[in-house]
Write a structure and sequence with these properties.
The complex is a heterodimer of chains A (82) and B (246).
Chain A (H helix, E strand, L loop, with lengths): L6 H6 L4 H44 L1 H5 L1 H7 L8
Chain B lengths: L1 H7 L2 H33 L13 H28 L2 H33 L7 H21 L4 H15 L2 H11 L19 H33 L4 H8 L3
The chains are: A mainly alpha (82), B mainly alpha (246).
Subcellular location (chain B): Cell inner membrane; Membrane
Function (chain B): Required for the export of heme to the periplasm for the biogenesis of c-type cytochromes.
GO biological process, one term (chain B): cytochrome complex assembly
Chain lengths: 82, 246
């Protein structure tokens, strides 16, 4: 059994709309931000780690690393050692 | 039992087992929170005194529970790290703190907003509210302390000590409504007696509480995995993992 007669009634929350929806809104906002942050953190970390592994592999193969193609692949971060 | 704990302390093993556990907690969190929200917002009957403002309960109480439970978890993790030098415990403690602070903020914010129609004020310096505010500062303190050291080991130890000392505040929060005169109502759920509200009101609350706990576990597993990769990035198993493309 729904506690409200209509959707408009549901939104109005019997006159308590600002209190109810601001509390629920901030709660869900923070939960969503937490999930997005965790995903962003993981992806960024994996990208950094992959780039590092690639750079180290390039260092072990000096001939290949001198090819300009490889610099392009490494993305902005050019290693002067390679 | 000890072998299990020892294995749990190994980052590599933790990374593997948490990958298997994590999806279940995400599914449980999503299912429980969606069901609990719809039920609590649209189907639970309005309170005979507070009307519909009582629906704030369904986010306020789970957030307040979690705020306190996360601090206790952090203190336990700190103790485990200090006594047994288990690094995974410290990593978990580190990633928990921001969620704990967020939950404390939610419970304070929703409580203040709820206070306006119910008590006629959004803030009172009473025992429950003040001790929750102290909890928020303790979280911020733990987070700041971690960032204040250049040595990771010192940062971890300092944060562990602050968590272990600060946990004193938790029983104060819990019993504040019994020890002092306060506007805040006493505990909604107790182990010894049935809740003083009808089933169709507290059942959705139970779902929300369980959902928030699942969310906390899922997020902590996920972020601890990231923290493991970050701190163990020079270990061979992490390199192999990255080379394999995951």
């Amino acid at each position: 059994m729904m506690a409200f007669d209509s959707f408009a009634d549901f939104l109005a929350m019997g006159g308590h709309a600002p209190y109810v929806w601001s509390s629920w809104g901030i709660t869900f906002l923070l939960l969503i931000v937490a999930v997005l942050h965790a995903r962003f953190e993981r992806r960024q970390l994996l990208t950094t780690l992959r780039r590092r592994v690639r750079r180290e592999q390039a260092r072990h193969q000096p001939v290949a690393s001198q090819a300009p193609l490889n610099t392009a692949q490494g993305g902005g971060n050019h290693d002067p050692q390679a | 039992m000890w072998a299990f704990i020892h294995k749990l302390g190994s980052p590599k093993w933790f990374y593997r087992i948490s990958a298997k556990l994590q999806p279940w907690f995400w599914v449980a969190a999503a299912g429980l929170i969606v069901t609990g929200s719809l039920w609590g917002l649209a189907f639970a009957p309005a309170d005979y005194q507070q009307g519909n403002s009582f629906r704030i309960l369904y986010v306020h109480v789970p957030a307040a529970f979690l705020a306190q439970s996360i601090f206790v978890s952090m203190a336990i993790a700190g103790l485990v790290y200090m006594v047994w030098k288990i690094k995974v415990a410290d990593m978990a403690a580190a990633v928990m703190a921001p969620l704990g602070a967020a939950m404390t903020f939610i419970s304070l914010f929703s409580g203040a907003v709820w206070g306006v129609p119910t008590w006629g004020t959004w803030w009172m310096w009473d025992a429950r509210l003040t001790s929750m505010l102290i909890l928020l500062f303790l979280y911020l303190g733990v987070i700041a302390l971690r960032g204040a050291f250049t040595s990771r080991d010192s940062a971890s130890r300092a944060a562990s000590v602050l968590a272990m000392v600060g946990v004193i505040n938790i029983p104060i929060i819990k019993y504040s409504v019994d020890w002092w005169y306060t506007l805040h109502q006493p505990a909604t759920f107790t182990i010894t007696s049935r809740p003083a509200m009808p089933t169709e009101m507290w059942l959705p609350l139970l779902l929300m509480v369980l959902g928030f706990y699942s969310f906390f576990i899922a997020l902590t597993l996920m972020r601890t995995r990231s923290e493991i990769l970050r701190r163990e990035s020079n270990k061979r198993w992490v390199r192999e993992l990255v080379e394999e493309g995951q």
